[in-house]
Design goal:
With about 130 residues, the protein is an alpha/beta fold. The protein has a domain at about 45-130: 2-Layer Sandwich (Nucleotidyltransferase, domain 5). The protein has three helices and seven strands; from the N terminus they run H-E-E-E-E-H-E-H-E-E. The strands form two sheets. The chain has a five-stranded mixed beta sheet, covered by helices on one side. A two-stranded parallel ribbon has the order 1-7.
Length: about 130
């Protein structure tokens, strides 16, 4: 008595679901790559695993020679607070991203963070991803 199975297993592989996933990943990476803001000054940033989530309003950079820059414009250490007040006066929720060379002494970084704290500005320290 020859019994045969009615259910046959198909050996074909359906690629449609795999292509959907690839296109979704492509769209995701295209959208997230537009949110990355390039740093105009060449600084050797400290590294961290944390991600910057804050919207960048103003960029402050401190070079290894202790030169201060606000949005690529060189300023003196004494005039940082006045320059920030002029640039941020129309912003509802001002946010600052601080780029500093890893060789800069912490006192210069704290000086900028103290200015942000006194004026109630949000400040984020930029790092390079690991």
């Amino acid at each position: 008595m020859g019994l045969r199975s009615r259910n046959k297993v198909s050996a074909n592989f359906n690629m449609s679901s795999m292509t959907d996933i690839v296109f979704l990943l492509l769209i995701f990476f295209m959208l997230t790559s537009t949110l990355v803001s390039p740093n105009a000054l060449k600084l050797l940033l400290p590294s961290s695993k944390a991600k910057t989530l804050e919207k960048q309003t103003i960029s402050i950079s401190i070079t290894k020679d202790i030169d201060f820059y606000i949005n690529e414009n060189k300023v003196t250490a004494a005039s940082i607070e006045q320059e920030l007040k002029l640039l941020i006066k129309n912003e509802k929720e001002p946010a600052i991203i601080l780029h500093t060379d890893k060789t800069v002494a912490i006192e210069h970084v704290v000086k900028v963070m103290d200015i942000a704290y006194r004026n109630k500005y949000k400040i984020v320290l930029a790092t390079t991803p690991n």
